[in-house]
Amino acid sequence: MNYKHLHYFWMVAKEGSIAAAAERLNVTPHTISAQLGLLDDYFGCSLFTKVGRKLELTETGHMALSYASDIFSLGSELEERVRNLDKIRPLVFKVGVVDVVPKSIAYHLLSPAMDDIKNMRMICHEGDINELLAQLALHRLDLVISESPIPSDVSINGYSHSLGNCGSSFMAHPEVASSLQGEFPDNLNGSPMLLPGENTMVRRQLLQWCNKHKIHPRVVGEFDDSALMKAFAHAGKGIMVLPTPIRDEVSAQLGLQLLGETQEINNNYYAISIERKISHTAVEKITTAARNWLGETN
Q1: Regarding beta strands 91-98 and 120-127, do their DSSP bridges make them parallel or antiparallel, or are they unpaired?
Q2: Which of 83, 71, 105 is nearest to 1 (CA)?
Q3: Average pLDDT of span 189-202
Q4: Given this model, what pLDDT does residue 176 score?
Q5: 193: exposed, middle or buried (C-beta count within 10 Å: 0-12, 13-18, 19+)?
Q6: What whole-number distance in Å separates Cα of residue 208 and Cα of residue 203?
Q7: Lowest-pLDDT range, 23-32, 120-129, 289-298?
Q8: For residues 261-288, average pLDDT
Q9: What is the pTM of this model?
Q10: For residue 35, how far is the Cα from the chain centroid?
Q11: Rounded to the nearest 10 degrees, how much is the dihedral formed by the CA atoms of 284, 290, 295, 298?
């Protein structure tokens, strides 16, 4: 059945005449007459009969109108449901966070998307960069937050969008801070130091920075998990290095004291996606807010 023919029939029956239906549909009366003729041929009987200058439904026409009304009523309902689907269904945003990215940094980078986009559900996964990039390549993730761009030895059609960079701050429990002698950074010589895990970019920079300034701290712990390292610093076990943008937040939460800062130990953050040009609404919010935040705190 040609539903376009049926739709013309339905409109003529609703409007009461071919002329009125033609005006409503913005077609010529001749077009509608021709389509009605084809529908009559398909059914093998007439759906209208001419009474004077008017068209009246035949008995078969009345039955056809009943079905047509149901069909096009359901069609209108379908169209409305589809158009309103995005208002009903939450936007699902699947993001992977590389495990070496500090949790506080990840929160600040991701929260603008949840704050600004109504009816969104964020699904976060944590893991190493190779595992998360594999998930991204399979379209199981929309974005990966990392401290480095896509490694050169990883074969993936993806793009690394810089979110910005920031310096680093050295912080410690007040008791540890009070035990240090001299000015920063010389007071770090022989001091208890908590190092980030060996797979992190910041650890390599920290060791290079210490070597450059002839500083030899006493390493008392190494941590893959930045949250665990904060707990040890809070307990007074040693000095930790963290991104400067979260310095005040960590100081307020854990009561740590700022020892000094440097831009030489640089923290970089990237949003990795399979799109060259960012189009996902949540990713746009994250990249814009991150660049503003990190730019303000450099």
Answers
A1: parallel
A2: 71
A3: 92
A4: 96
A5: buried
A6: 9
A7: 289-298
A8: 85
A9: 0.65
A10: 49
A11: -160
